[in-house]
Amino acid sequence: MALDKNFLWGGATAANQVEGGVLEGGRKLSNIDVLPCGEDRKAVGFGEMEMLEWKEGYYYPAKEAIDMYHRYMDDIQLFAEMGFKAYRMSLSWSRIFPNGDDAEPNEEGLAFYEGIFKELKKHNIEPLVTIAHFDVPIHLIKEYGGWRSRKLVDFYSRYAETVLKRFKGYVKYWLTINEINILLHQPFVGGGIIFKEGDNKEEIKYQAAHYQLLASAKATKIAHEVDPEIQVGCMLAGGSHYPYTCRPEDYQEAIKRDREGYFFIDVQARGKYPNYALKKFEQEGLNIVMEDGDAEILASAPVDFVSFSYYCSRTVSAHPEDYQQATGNLFASIKNDNLPSTEWGWQIDPLGLRNSLNQLYDRYQKPLFIVENGLGAIDQPDENGFVDDEYRIDYLRKHVEAFKAAVEVDGVELLGYTTWGCIDLVAASTGQMSKRYGFIYVDRDDEGNGTLNRSKKKSFDWYKQVIATNGENLASPVVATASV
C-alpha cells in the first residue's frame, strides 16, 4: 500500500511565531507575545514568573516575528512553488476576539485570514487550521486566570463557532488545540496559567485540561453541524518513551509517561476519561470538578482524526539517579547513547516516528496526520542567502522513509505530512531565530536584526522533488545557489 495519490504534503507554522503585527488590525496581546527571549523565558512559560505586558530590558520575538502579516502573499507563492498540497497554520484568537470575551468578533482580523485562505485556494493548497496554537488572549488571563476558569470553555466555543461559520468552504481540516498535553509541562504556554503561592499545581493543570477537553468537544460538535464535510482532529506533542533498561520498573515508567500524553487523546478520540486517569485523580486526591452534562459533551463529538508532532523519542527511568545525563527537550529524558542529537540536544530517531505511528493507530484506529516534524539547526547562508542544508535533507529523508514504511509495510492510515517551520520562524521553545527549521531562510537574528528577506535553501528543491514524486524520489538534488 503506497501513499495515497491525494496525500497531503506541506508545511506548518503558527500565527504567533510568524505573523508579527501583534497590535495591528485591532489585535491585542496574547500569552506568547509576552514570552521574552532569554533566561526568563522558561520561568514565564512554566507559569512561575508573571509577565503580562512588555517590559523594559526584554526582547519579545513574537512582536514582529518574520512579518508574515504583511508578507503572506509572497510566502504562499513560495509554498506553491514547492508544490504544497496543504499548509498548516493557526489563527490568532486575539486577532479575531481581541480580548477573548468580546461580544462581537473583529472584522478586520476575520478579513485578514479570509485573504490568506483565498490566496491558498488560488494555488490549490488545502489549509489545515489550528484554532488555538499556544494562544490565550492576555485579557482572559488577567480577568479569569486563563484556562483555570470554566468561562473559557464558552469564550473558546464562541470563537470556534465564529471561525467555523465564517470560513465554511475555505477550510476542510481543523485542529482544536495545538499540542494539548503541553499544558502539563508549560502551563502558561498551554493555558495562560500563572501559579500563586500555595497552589495545588497538579490539580489546577488537570482542571484546566478538563476545560480544554470540553471546549475541544464543543468545537468538534459545532464543526460537524456547520458542515458535515469538515474533518476535525486533535493534536498531541508526540514521541514514544523508551525504558532506559529492561528493568520492569523502567518499562512501567515508560508506559506511565506515554499515558500523560495519551490521556488527552483518549478523551478526544474516544469521548470519555480513561480509567487510569480517574484512578490518578482518586489516588492523588485531585479534586477535578466535573459538572452534570460534561460526560455527555465529551461523548457527543469524538474527533475524526489524530494529529501529532514528532521530533524525537524519549528515554525514561524509574530511578532518578539515571537522569544525570539528560537531553535538551522540554520533556525530562535521559540521553540515549544509541541515537545522535541535534545542536539543541534533541535526539534524532526516525524509527521512533514509525513506532509512534503504529502505537497511535493501534490505540485509536483513526486516520493519523503528522503535522509537525523537522530539524532545528544553525544555518550558515552564503552571500546570496543560500543555505546548503544537507543535514536537514538527511533528517527529513529518514523520517519520510519511516512514515512510508508505517503506511506501506504496517498498514497505518496516514492523511498527510506537514513539516514544522517550512519557513524559518521564532522557535517556541527558546524564542530564537537561530534555531531554524525552514526550507526558506529568513534574514533575522536572535536580537531582531536583519532585513527579513527570504531565500531558498537546498532543502527547498529537495522537498519540491519529494512532493512532485509523492515521496518516491528522496535523493538530494543538484541546485544552483540563488536567492528568491
From TrEMBL:
Which InterPro entries does its entry note? Answer: GH, GH_1_N_CS, Glyco_hydro_1, Glyco_hydro_1_AS
Q: What class of enzyme is it?
A: hydrolase
Q: Report a single Gene Ontology molecular function.
A: 6-phospho-beta-glucosidase activity
Residues of the active site are 372 (nucleophile)
**Pfam families attached here?**
Glyco_hydro_1
Keyword check for Cell inner membrane, yes or no. Answer: no
Q: Which EC number(s) does the record attach to this protein?
A: 3.2.1.86
Sorted alphabetically, the keyword list is:
Glycosidase, Hydrolase
Task: Name the family.
Answer: Belongs to the glycosyl hydrolase 1 family.
Name of the molecule in the record: 6-phospho-beta-glucosidase
